[in-house]
Amino acid sequence: MIPEIRKVLFMKNLQAESYSPLYHQLMTRIRADIEQGTYPIGSKIPPEHELERLYQVSRVTVRRALAELTTEGLLERKQGKGTFVASPRGSLPLKSLHTFHDSCKMNKMRPSIDVIHVKETDADADAAEELNMSRGGKVLEVLRVCRGDGVPVVLERNHFSMAYAWLQDQDLTGSLYGILREYGVEPKLALHDVSIHYASEEEAKILEMETGAPLIRLHEVIYDQRGRPLHTNVQLIRGDRFVFTI
């Protein structure tokens, strides 16, 4: 356990009944500790499992808070080492949302998309929290395989709240965001989580790879122009055939 954590955070329980989301409350606590010098510039903050235990919140809540503070430039993640308090910056680069079609253009590839299924399914605990839904609710799942020059390069799974059930009646072989914009919904912000994933037998068959082959796993939560959760997205990307820019 990192020195001073117990003294600083003990009994700092978050208020589940508060109108402020738990992730936002956790952000406020961490930001205050940084401003007060509890976590000096360059120091490592508690790991996710420790924050989860101390504040009695889910791992999803912790990751959301850390992701937001990282986007703000207050924290920085170092691969294999953890999350640290970042040095002050003069400005922060804005991260734009790239669609599959945009990314294909960057890589000089011809895009095409096949829809595997569009169906109603049960929301798991993570999806419910990320979409700000009640547990036990339903989500609309859109599973697609994205091709570059005819080769499958991305397997994409999207989850929407059932407020977007009308997407079942749309042609989803093109730009998903293009359709949303036609209905006045503007995707504005994406929180990214990148990891390595090994292809299951079914995933390998769809992506025309060997079972167990390494894939880039990109998990996103996308927010609309009003700051509301729009959908979640998990992409399994073939790094041997496709360069994905975040």
Overall description:
By secondary structure, the chain is of the alpha+beta class. It folds into 2 domains: about 5-85, Winged helix-like DNA-binding domain superfamily/Winged helix DNA-binding domain (Arc Repressor Mutant, subunit A, Orthogonal Bundle), CATH 1.10.10.10; about 100-235, 3-Layer(aba) Sandwich (Chorismate lyase). Helices cover about 30% and strands about 30% of the residues. The chain has helices spanning about 5-10, 20-35, 50-55, 60-70, 100-105, 125-130, 175-180, 200-205, and strands spanning about 75-80, 80-85, 110-120, 140-150, 150-160, 190-200, 215-225, 230-235. Strands 3-4-5-8-7-6 form a 6-stranded antiparallel beta sheet. Strands 1-2 form a two-stranded antiparallel ribbon.
List the helices and strands and how they pair.
Layout: H1 5-9, H2 22-35, H3 48-55, H4 59-72, E1 75-78, E2 82-85, H5 100-106, E3 111-122, H6 125-130, E4 138-148, E5 151-161, H7 176-182, E6 189-198, H8 201-207, E7 214-223, E8 229-237
Antiparallel strand pairs: 1-2, 3-4, 4-5, 5-8, 6-7, 7-8
Helix pairs in contact: 2-4, 3-4
Q: Major beta sheet, specifics? A: 6 strands, antiparallel
SSE class: alpha+beta
What proportion strand?
25-35%
The amount of helix comes to 25-40%
CATH class of the largest domain: Alpha Beta
Outline: globular
The unreliable regions are 1-11, 89-95
Total count of strands:
8
Strand order of the largest sheet: 3-4-5-8-7-6
Q: What is the alpha-carbon Rg in Å?
A: 20 Å
Order of helices and strands: HHHHEEHEHEEHEHEE
CATH topology of the largest domain: Chorismate lyase
Protein name: GntR family transcriptional regulator
